[in-house]
């Protein structure tokens, strides 16, 4: 089998790495890929942008590719699956109609209300004045309706901050065409990520993970795509997972079916668990999470292509339970200093081989090779991912490996897991 992975993050490297282990997988193409996928066994990068659908279709035809895995949300929201489906391919990732679950927060809120899925109270506005009038108390959460690469949400602690966030949305900072705002009740609790696979008929959760969105230690500073993650998180007990399955995942699938949306891919529920154990949905994503996919796939024993193909062929319900390694996986993201604001690229990265020799896996995100050197090419650069018998062991292994790696202005959080495990 030849597979195409669309994307260039740590998530895509983790997917390529996992798929490369299977004897069923002959060759993997990554478009555009990164420095990690460039050197991964069986893997080859082809420089095609993720939104150039005609060029991707040409590559698929030329190389006789039979399975496409779409990593990021942008091509999904633009309809890559609809476009490629015309060639009767197997595509892991929802159509445009399904990707709207992530691409429009107001659509997702309406969808959750219809299906009685627990979520924060909210209201949607298309005019700044009306949105501002609605705000009477703080903290309050202001969300740009459309895709904003993780930057469209402001937890406002003053009215001024809330008004400013609304103004930025209506000035078109995130999306010039979609200038709606969702204003949401502020919730407190533990944030977790439940990624589930679906073939449109059944839905099966993967190991629950916890991401660390804020750039700073102690969960301070602006939000990023994610500064580190671990799985499984003990916040999600088996009872809580059953509850999430019944209250969130099943009703999501049922409501997609009711709306006639044939969804085959990942449904990622970002949840907040209140101190009393209540789960509410903060957001849906229509794809694998990054960095969550790095620790999750590090523990997966079932061959990944079997799961992906079963989703595409609508036979997920016929598969035996998903097998997992015991233990815990911890991923620490190494970022370029300045991220999620402005940062420099092109810094030489040293020590990756030495780090991997300690028994961890380094997934690449913003890296590339230039004149034999591995250099930085993005905000999130590497995901140092370690598996251990328990959290403490995995974390110690991950940070020992981090110590082997250097690049100018390298930045990372030292407190992955802080909310649950005392550091
Ligand atoms: P979202 O993209 O909707 O997941 O929001 C990004 C981040 O903002 C989340 O990961 C939370 O940390 C925070 N957030 C979003 N909605 C809320 C809420 N209703 N209450 C508290 N924090 C929130
Ligand atoms: N780690 C958060 C995300 O993938 O959206």
UniProtKB/TrEMBL annotation:
In alphabetical order, the GO MF annotations are: ATP binding; metal ion binding; phosphoribosylamine-glycine ligase activity
Reaction catalyzed: 5-phospho-beta-D-ribosylamine + glycine + ATP = N(1)-(5-phospho-beta-D-ribosyl)glycinamide + ADP + phosphate + H(+)
One Pfam family assigned to this protein is GARS_C
Please give a single GO biological process term from the UniProt record: purine nucleobase biosynthetic process
Q: Which cofactor does it need?
A: Mg(2+); Mn(2+)
Concerning InterPro entries, the annotation shows:
ATP-grasp (IPR011761), ATP_grasp_subdomain_1 (IPR013815), PreATP-grasp_dom_sf (IPR016185), PRibGlycinamid_synth_ATP-grasp (IPR020561), PRibGlycinamide_synth (IPR000115), PRibGlycinamide_synth_C-dom (IPR020560), PRibGlycinamide_synth_C_sf (IPR037123), PRibGlycinamide_synth_CS (IPR020559)
Which keywords has UniProt assigned to this entry? ATP-binding, Ligase, Manganese, Metal-binding, Nucleotide-binding, Purine biosynthesis
Which family is this sequence assigned to?
Belongs to the GARS family.
**Alphabetical list of NCBIfam families matching this protein:** purD (TIGR00877)
Designated name of the protein: Phosphoribosylamine--glycine ligase
Q: Which species does the entry assign this protein to?
A: Trichodesmium erythraeum (strain IMS101)
């Amino acid at each position: 089998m030849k597979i195409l992975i669309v994307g260039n993050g740590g998530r895509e490297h983790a997917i390529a790495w996992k798929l490369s282990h299977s004897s069923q997988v002959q060759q993997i193409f990554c478009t555009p890929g990164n420095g990690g996928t460039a050197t991964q066994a069986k893997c080859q990068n082809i420089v095609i942008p993720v939104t150039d659908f005609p060029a991707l279709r040409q590559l698929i035809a030329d190389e006789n590719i039979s399975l496409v895995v779409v990593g990021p949300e942008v091509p999904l929201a633009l309809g890559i699956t609809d476009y490629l489906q015309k060639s009767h391919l197997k595509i892991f990732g929802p159509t445009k109609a399904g990707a709207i679950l992530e691409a429009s927060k107001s659509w997702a809120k309406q969808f959750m209300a219809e299906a009685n899925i627990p979520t924060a109270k909210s209201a949607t506005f298309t005019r700044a004045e009306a949105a501002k009038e609605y705000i009477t108390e703080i903290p309050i959460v202001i969300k740009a309706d459309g895709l904003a690469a993780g930057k469209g949400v402001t937890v406002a602690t003053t009215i001024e901050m809330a008004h400013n966030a609304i103004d930025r949305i209506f000035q078109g900072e995130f999306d010039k065409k979609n200038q709606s705002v969702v204003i949401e009740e502020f919730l407190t609790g533990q944030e977790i990520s439940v990624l589930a696979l679906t073939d449109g008929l059944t839905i099966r959760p993967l190991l629950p993970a916890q991401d660390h969105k804020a750039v700073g230690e102690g969960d301070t500073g602006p939000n990023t795509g994610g500064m580190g993650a671990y799985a499984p998180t003990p916040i999600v007990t088996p009872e809580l997972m059953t509850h999430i399955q019944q209250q969130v995942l099943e009703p999501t699938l049922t409501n997609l079916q009711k709306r006639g949306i044939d969804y085959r891919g990942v449904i990622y529920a970002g949840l907040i668990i209140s101190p009393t154990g209540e789960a509410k949905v903060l957001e849906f994503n229509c794809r694998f999470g990054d960095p969550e996919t790095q620790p999750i796939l590090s523990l997966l024993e079932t061959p990944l292509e079997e799961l992906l193909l079963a989703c595409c062929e609508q036979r997920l319900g016929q598969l035996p339970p998903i097998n997992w390694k015991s233990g815990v996986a911890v991923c620490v993201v190494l970022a370029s200093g300045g991220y999620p604001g402005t940062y420099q690229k092109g810094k030489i990265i040293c020590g990756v081989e030495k780090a991997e020799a300690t028994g961890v896996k380094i997934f690449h995100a913003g890296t590339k090779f230039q004149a034999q050197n591995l250099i930085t090419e993005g905000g999130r650069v590497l995901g140092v991912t370690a598996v251990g018998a328990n959290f403490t062991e995995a974390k110690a292994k991950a940070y020992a490996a981090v110590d082997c790696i250097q690049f100018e202005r390298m930045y990372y959080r030292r407190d992955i897991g802080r909310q649950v495990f005392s550091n």
